[in-house]
Design a protein that fits this description.
Elements lengths: L10 E5 L2 E5 L21 H12 L9 E3 L2 E3 L8 E5 L2 E5 L4 E4 L3 H7 L4 E5 L2 E4 L3 E6 L5 E5 L5 E4 L1 H18 L2
Antiparallel strand pairs: 1-2, 3-4, 3-7, 5-6, 5-9, 6-7, 8-9, 10-11, 11-12
Amino acid sequence: MQFLFQTYNENAMKLRGVCMRVRIELVGENDPVEAVIYCRNVTPEIEELARQMSLGNKSGPQPTFFKGEEEYFLTLSEILFFETDGDAVFAHTDKDSYETGQRLYELETILPNYFVRISRSTIANTLHIFSIQRGLTRVGLVSFRGSYKEVYVSRMYNHILRVKMEERNLYEKT
């Protein structure tokens, strides 16, 4: 049995007001490299941290936002939803919309876990959803906090949205 030389480098890291201890251990050449996150609750920040760590340096392209010839630099937390209109995909904020160069299927792979597909033409940010009004055909009308904008969730994606909203409720209980 080979003894592995290990060093411990402990640092403090702030995440949502919680002090987190970070420990780095060196492993041998033939041992797998892994990261383990111990937490009290799985929050969107923890999910995003895990996603970024699993991607490593392969984070892929980030969404770009345009209005006419002008490029805008928005944070993903500002986006209420992404929606297709013809051949174009638009990112909607509470008061405006911006064209993005990516397709919805491309956005699904690079967006954080709090974004969820709710129809063939829409990806919504669950952190901004205020209400879901059910219709007779089981198609729901989704309203967003602080905005007049609304989108529909289709029957096919309704269950996935419900699961994501339950996860969001767990985040907010912390």
